Amino acid sequence: MTWFGLVRKNLFRRPVRTLLTAAGVALGVGLIVALLSIAAGTERTAGDLIHVGRADFGLFQSGVSDATKSLLPVSLESRVRHDAGVAQTALVFLDVTTVNGQESSLVIGLDPNEFAAKRLTLVEGNRTGALAGDHFGARLGETLRIGRRAFRVTGIYHSGDRFEDAGVVLPLSTVQALANRPDETTSIGVIVTPGQRPQAVATALEKEYGITAVVEPGQAVNVDTSSRLIIDVGWVISALALIVGGIGVTNTMAMSVFERVREIGILRAVGWPGRRIAALIVSEAVGISLVALALGLGVGVLAAHLFTAQTGLSTLVAPRFTAGVFAWGLAFALGVGLAGAIYPTWRALRLSPIEALRRE
Fold first, then answer.
1. Which residue, of 157, 211, 263, 340, is most buried by count of CB atoms within 10 Å of its CB?
2. How far apart are CA 345 and CA 342, in angstroms?
3. Total domain count, the chain
4. From the centroid of its chain, how far is CA 258?
5. What is the C-alpha to C-alpha distance for residues 326 and 293, in angstroms, rounded to an integer?
6. Pair 149, 264 in one domain
7. What is the spatial distance between Cα 105 and Cα 118, in angstroms, rounded to a whole number?
8. What confidence tens digit (pLDDT) does each residue in 329-360 have?
9. pLDDT of 224 strictly over 60
């Protein structure tokens, strides 16, 4: 019998117990995959958000539940514009609302005279009315119902920013009126002067005005407290899942060793060294982990899509299943398996062949 065949035979002596243990570990794997894929999707959205209008970075209110809830006074723009290192600024108002009955649609308010609006590439039509991104799905001449007002689509634009191209652009004052925030904006986009480092300029503006400047997508958690909470809670739950999964694998493998005392004794008697016995037990634990990994990846992908759809995030955030996300799932599954194999392996190695053969 091959090594793989021996491992499979031992695992499926008690198939229900093996599958239940694998299912418990799979839940932990699924949780990690779902949380990390959503976090990766949120980071991608944040990267698109901070570069609206191809800005070098964006200025936001600190500590809001998410970046679209940021509110800054419009008057701040003139002060930022005159700071050293700042070449241009643009007000950006993001309103997540219902458009033609479609919830969580993005409406972007831009000043037509600032760079964020000027950098939109018009694919069709003109700029006299509402502009729809080429990923939004609207057509020229179509009427969009936003709040209590109707807007006719006069142009289709493309910016190269996935976040921006999935929305509708209206004049800044119009969106401020829709949101009932006439003197406020969500963000201020900044272009630095040639030769300046965006991070250095951003840090100086943060210190001067007590706001948050987001230069890189990974810094979005400094603004978005809900994303930070999801990530922090996710790691705590994952750590608990690691402990619970490790206990489950330990229990399963310990029971397997207990039931196979005579078999282990015979293997030792016919010349199997301790390291080979240990390798067999570890291989069985890893086998459980691989079954759990296969189940967990499916659960994680499904859970991530369900979570974004049910919470209304799907319009703005799509889960990203990167190699890193799956690598963490693999690391968790193997970590649980190896941790769970420690005690059973120690117990098996302590058995002497004579004592094991005496047991019934």
1. 340
2. 5
3. 2
4. 42
5. 9
6. no
7. 22
8. 888 888 888 888 888 888 777 766 666 556 55
9. no
